[in-house]
Amino acid sequence: MGVTDKVWDALTTVIKMNDKVVSLAGTVKEQQTKIENLTERVIRLEATLEIALRLSPDQKRIGN
């Protein structure tokens, strides 16, 4: 294998790796968005639970 072939193989490998990194970055961005949406939902659920517990003082509180 000549030097030209080795250089060509190296460049091909770098281009393939770059494509994979770009694809992975897109996947990570999508996952981050999903995590942020789930976090918002959990916060809303916690707030709703707090309000419900405060509005019904005759009910036993969780953990008390």
UniProtKB/TrEMBL annotation:
Q: Does the keyword Coiled coil apply?
A: yes
Residues in coiled coil: 21-55
Upper classification of the source organism reads: Bacteria, Pseudomonadati, Pseudomonadota, Betaproteobacteria, Burkholderiales
**Domain of life, source organism:** Bacteria
Q: Which UniProt keywords apply?
A: Coiled coil, Plasmid
Name of the protein: Uncharacterized protein
Q: State the species of origin.
A: Paraburkholderia phytofirmans (strain DSM 17436 / LMG 22146 / PsJN) (Burkholderia phytofirmans)
